[in-house]
Design brief:
It is a single chain. The longest helix is centred in the C-terminal third of the chain and has 6 residues. The chain is mostly beta strands. The protein is globular and about 30 Å long. It is 9% helix and 40% strand.
């Protein structure tokens, strides 16, 4: 997706920087090349890393798709 297609407060699937799998979460902040996501769900392989980041991750816009 492009930055202008991503809306604050909406849920998306994306691939956070440094994570193995896709997560689903809400966009809480947008920057030039990426967005901050409050994660609602993730794979168990990333759960410990997510907890260490207080459920907040950064993902590039080109990894975003609409949440299902």
């Amino acid at each position: 997706m492009q930055e202008e297609q991503v809306e604050l407060g909406q849920n998306y699937q994306c691939q956070p920087v440094g994570f193995e799998n896709i997560v689903v979460g809400e966009v809480v902040s947008k920057m030039a090349n990426c967005a901050v996501i409050r994660v609602n769900s993730c794979e168990t392989t990333d759960a410990q890393q997510l907890e260490a980041k207080s459920n907040m991750v950064v993902a590039r816009y080109d990894t975003f798709t609409h949440a299902r």
